Amino acid sequence: MNMFASVPMKVIGPVAIRGLEVNDEVIVPLATYETPLWATTNRGAKVSRQAGGILATIIDERMTRSIVLQADTAQTCLEVINALEERREELKSLVSSSSRFAKLLDINHQVAGNLLFIRFEFLTGDASGHNMVTQAADNLMTWILQNYQQLKHVSVSGNYCVDKKVSAVNGILGRGKYVVTEMVIPREVCRATLKTEPEKIAELNIKKNLIGSILAGGLRTANAHFANMLLGFYLATGQDAANIVEGSQGLVHTEMRGDDLYFSVTVPNIIVGTVGNGKDLPFVQENMALMGCDVHGEPGQNARRLAIICAATVMCGELSLMAAQTNHGELMRAHIAMERR
Asked: Domains of the chain (ranges plus CATH)?
């Protein structure tokens, strides 16, 4: 018997986005129990329209799976690594022959004692790619074990991927879509819509997001609440919501540009897809169509558009909360007004 948990959902926006891949004003659905999230993200969306749009750039994309194998010695691990480096094209051909969309981009490795961790990185078309990369990694592992019988199977996932866990490696080597969003916000917009001064937001970013995160031991992360917007977006679009763990490891950078505020959000691990498990639900299909992410084209185009919209939505919510926190008492007043009955 199928059962469903109901999560309230509303749309915000439109969010104004510009760049090489998306130049559009987009209505965005968010599913959340946190009522103020809609209002605060919507305020950021209003700023995006007033400030000429959010410039969004995809820096990189790849999905990963790491296998772990065992040898008798580290020297054997190294010999296999060197051999595999010489046979990269064979590995790429193996992946392409077994999948229409998976393409092997790169291979990284780590040796710990007699354990060999191999991190495969793939393109996965319009799918987020969890199952696709696991299948490809499984096929690659079978081939490696057949060709290098001095190795033994340990696991198809060795935690060097890294899937749904906080890590440094995802930020360094990449997992998902690496998106940077930027906006220059005039002082008059800060005053009229955000009810603050640009200098206050820039200063708060240093004291709260940067210094506060350092004191807390944050790992490759310095932001106020990326996870809130990511979760709302992921639930509304049928994504694997647990990927907000690595997705929320991102940075806010601000600076004054004359009289205006430069505000940027870097989200290096956005893991989203427009096809695959969960995408056949009627409300998900409606939301994809609403955002223009259901148009057939080159493999990967819809997922890239979705990732850009996701990152822009994260920026809208982050900017609005940061502005609110520059004013004593504003955050709690908003929560009381919207959540207390």
From this structure: 9-60+176-339 (3.90.770.10), 63-155 (3.30.70.420)
Q: Which residues, at least 6 apart from 280, have a Cβ–Cβ distance to it below 8 Å?
A: none
Does the annotation mark 199 as catalytic? no
CA distance 248 to 226: 5
The pLDDT, as a whole number, for residue 337 is: 74
Q: Does residue 225 carry a catalytic annotation?
A: no
Catalytic residue among 10, 103, 164, 225: 164
- Residue 72 annotated in active site: no
Q: Of the listed 21, 24, 25, 34, which one is catalytic?
A: 34
Assess whether 240 carries a catalytic annotation.
yes
Catalytic, out of 240, 253, 294, 330? 240
CB within 8 Å of 217: residues ≥ 6 apart: none
| Amino acid at site 305 | R
- What confidence tens digit (pLDDT) does each residue in 118-127 have? 999 999 999 9
Determine whether 16 is exposed, middle or buried from the number of CB atoms within 10 Å of its CB (0-12, 13-18, 19+): buried
* Predicted TM-score of the model (pTM): 0.95
Check: CB of residue 42 under 8 Å from CB of residue 28.
Answer: no
**Which of the residues in the chain have pLDDT under 50?**
none
